Amino acid sequence: MTDTARKATPAIEHREPVWGYAPAPESTGIVRLEDRYGLFVNGGFVEPKSGKWFTTINPATEEPLAEVAEAGPEDVGLAVDAARDAYERRWRSLPGSERAKYLYRIARQLQERAREFAVLESMNGGKPIKESRDIDLPLAAAHFFYYAGWADKLEYAFPGRTPSPIGVAGQIIPWNFPMLMAAWKLAPALATGNTAVLKPAETTPLTALLLAQVIQEAEVPPGVVNIVTGAGETGAALVKSSVDKVAFTGSTEVGKIIRRTIAGSGKRLTLELGGKAANIVFEDAPLDQAIEGVVNGIFFNQGHVCCAGSRLLVQEPVFDVLIDKLKERLQTLRVGDPLDKNTDVGAINSRVQLQKIEELVASGIQEGAQMYQPECVLPERGFWFRPTLFTGVSQSHRIAREEIFGPVLSILTFRTPEEAVEKANNSPYGLSAGVWTEKGSRILWMAERLRAGVVWANTFNRFDPASPFGGYKESGFGREGGLQGLEPYLRLDGGAA
Ligand code: NAP
Ligand code: MG
To answer: How far is the CA of 232 from the centre of ligand 2 (A)?
Structure first.
């Protein structure tokens, strides 16, 4: 060994190893953005009669991505007319096996172009690429495949009844899962013989417009799917138009407005609204596994998830150990560039949503709960919020009652299973719940008592097109997914549409 080497060795031995992730950005080269996107009406892209356009941005950088048309009431009316015409002249009388053909084409195109869609979804919405790539897009394609399968079997789905379509569906979706929500809405509507006018959220219109291109390439008859972009007023115009059914996913507040608006009109309605799910950890739960479920439950998609496990209920004997483990785990979450394949928590979807999160978090501090945030460096531009925990939360705190729709977890404790049920159900919402325990009998006991549309046991945020999803109470009514997801788009009394 040379002198230099001998000298160098101790220095290397004493250096603390620094383990980090090298940047692993997904290329955006696969996405071809247009400067401007018109409305998708009657099979083609058209300029809005309103003459209005708005800019859609990347929430991680605040950079503009494209100009998008803002549909006014006249534009919405034209889209509904196109859908009506397509319904009456072509779609409703097409055999189910023919309708399925188009749905299978869309599904296959989504699979083939999955990377392009996933990158665009992350650019426009701020969600980590590993989620848009591994969850949003595969599930969206799976939804089209699943409902394509039902299209020619409706009479077997509802034996002894005569299912027939309803007509034109007006469908309004939020920004948290733009492509997946479009698939949840369009696939069952088309499979059952309805035509549709879809209104994506203002902040995330781009993947729906890419889907419009796929629909064109799949040669779906013009007018069967129409996509009208815009903000809340466009949605309100769609609700007031001559559609036969409104399918809405969004906030409870807007859901109530819609229900009032269409009361007495004879229009059919399904509402998929907000949530404040309890994720309940019993003392006998496998704690490390539960920690992963808790983290997934609230930090998946920055907590912009209607069924997020935003209230953690921990049985008292394991509270201290669970909190320590959870804090340690939060330190390892990678917050940042949504297009980096290592990113766990991406950008908040919009400035408005960031302000809403900040306001509720400030109320938590003010009402006396204790906040914990891991150290992490946030990018300078764009909309960001650190993963956040609150302990010392009481049931009356706003952070325990209101939907934050961000990466913020409110933690409460309980002693007995009865108390866990009582606390979990003490909410105006009832969309989902999670139970962590080793005991199978306890899982069933809890599932029977929890007033939630979905109860996950020893897992969280699992979705499958064959499994129905929907709420109780102020989380809405109607089910999406599964056989149950066909029903809101059908008349089952045999009456002609
Ligand atoms: P939101 O404000 O209710 O918006 C949902 C959709 O409705 C958007 O397309 C929105 O347009 C449109 N809209 C707004 N005002 C309207 C009006 N007066 N009439 C008709 N349409 C109107 O909800 P958000 O803040 O975007 O989304 C978050 C909420 O959705 C959360 O509460 C969450 O729990 C809920 N959500 C529920 C589910 C579920 O399946 N249960 C799934 C996802 C999200 P603009 O965005 O362009 O304003
Ligand atoms: Mg909104």
So the answer is: 7
- Strand, coil or helix: 419: helix
Residue count of the chain: 497
Sign of the alpha-carbon torsion through 74, 75, 76, 79: positive
CA distances from 368 to 35, 241, 274, 392, 405 (A): 49, 47, 25, 8, 21
- For residue 171, give the amino acid letter: Q
Amino acid at 157: A
Q: Identify the pLDDT of residue 20.
A: 81
CA angle centred on 245, ends 244 and 249, rounded to 5°: 155
- The pTM (predicted TM-score) of the whole model is 0.95
What's the first-to-final CA gap in the chain, in angstroms?
90
- Residue 312 Cα to ligand 2 midpoint, Å, equals 26
Kindly report the number of other CB atoms within 10 A of residue 456's CB atom.
22
Largest CA distance in the chain: 95
pLDDT in tens, 363-395: 999 999 999 999 989 999 999 999 999 999 999
Q: Which of 116, 121, 306, 487 is catalytic?
A: 306
Ligand 1 atom with the smallest distance to the CA of 255 is 3
306, 357, 472, 473: residue to mutate for ligand 1 pocket, most atoms within 8 A of CB: 306
Tell me, yes or no, whether 28 lies in a domain. Answer: no
Q: Please check whether residue 31 lies inside any domain of the structure.
A: no
CA of 341 to the centre of ligand 2 (A): 29
Ligand 1 atom closest to the Cα of residue 184 is: 40
Same domain, 306 and 222: no
Q: Which of 4-18, 43-57, 205-219, 340-354 has the lowest mean pLDDT?
A: 4-18
Give the separation between CA 240 and CA 250, rounded to whole angstroms: 17
pLDDT confidence of residue 100 = 98
**How many domains are there within the chain?**
2
Catalytic annotation on 272? yes
How far, in Å, from the CA of 374 to the mean position of ligand 2? 29
Considering the domain architecture, whether residues 483 and 462 belong to the same structural domain is answered as no
Residue 68's domain comprises: 36-273+475-492
pLDDT (tens digit, 9 = 90+) per residue, 241-251?
A: 999 999 999 99
* 435 and 480 in a common domain: no
111-157 per-position pLDDT tens digit: 999 999 999 999 999 999 999 999 999 999 999 999 999 999 999 99
For residue 4, what pLDDT band results from cuts at 50, 70 and 90? very low
Asked whether residue 450 carries a pLDDT value surpassing 90, the answer given is: yes
Q: Do 405 and 449 lie in a common domain? A: yes
* Structural contact between residues 106 and 214, judged by C-beta atoms closer than 8 angstroms: yes
473 C-beta closer than 6 A to ligand 1? no
> From the candidates 131, 272, 402, 487, which is the catalytic residue?
272
